[in-house]
Amino acid sequence: MIIRYGDKNFERQVEKFERETIKKVKRVVAETAEIAVSQMKTLAPVSTIDGGNLKNSIDVTYAKGGLTAIVNSGANYSLFIEFGTGIYSKEGNGRKTPWVYFDKKLNRYVFTRGIKPMPFFYPSLEIAFKHFVKEMK
């Protein structure tokens, strides 16, 4: 003897609700990621030396069927731009004395005390996060 509980129509409605909700969440994740990338590319500084390498290295990939977005700045110096270096380093954690290095792109020695922070990544994430929270409500 088999005893069944529930209502098939109710089960179908729950499954439909689940599919539609996941679809909407994926849309919000994608919108949020694109807002973050767009804002980062707007805020990322472009120097004559790198020709926009930092800006061009910013991208997004999706995982977990679109429920996760991974925003990445692929330039190996992104952290230095975001947080600064030397005496200008955020939180004062940078090198306290000036230094000299040879720059192959400039083909000369460069004297520096560091560079000031030029935040582009975290301010963009904050803007995108506000969109995410608003849309998810």
**Helicity range of the residues?**
40-55%
Spatial strand order of the main sheet: 1-2
- Sheet-strand content, in percent, reads 15-25%
Query: Roughly how many Å is the radius of gyration?
Result: 23 Å
**Uncertain residue ranges:** none
Average pLDDT number: 92
Question: Structural class, from secondary structure content?
Answer: alpha+beta
Give the tally of β-strands: 4
Number of helices: 4
Shape: elongated
Question: Can you characterise this structure?
Answer:
The chain has about 140 residues and is of the alpha+beta class. It has one domain (about 10-135). It has four helices and four strands, in the order ααββαββα. The protein has helices spanning about 10-45, 55, 80-85, 120-135, and strands at about 60-65, 70-75, 100-105, 110. The strands form two sheets. A two-stranded antiparallel sheet has the order 1-2. A hairpin with a 4-residue loop joins strand 3 and strand 4. Helix 1 (about 10-45) runs antiparallel to helix 4 (about 120-135). The model has no long low-confidence stretch (mean pLDDT about 90).
Key descriptive features of the protein:
two-stranded antiparallel sheet; 137 residues; single chain; alpha+beta
Secondary structure elements and their pairing?
Layout: H1 8-43, H2 53-56, E1 58-63, E2 68-73, H3 78-83, E3 99-103, E4 108-112, H4 121-136
Antiparallel strand pairs: 1-2, 3-4
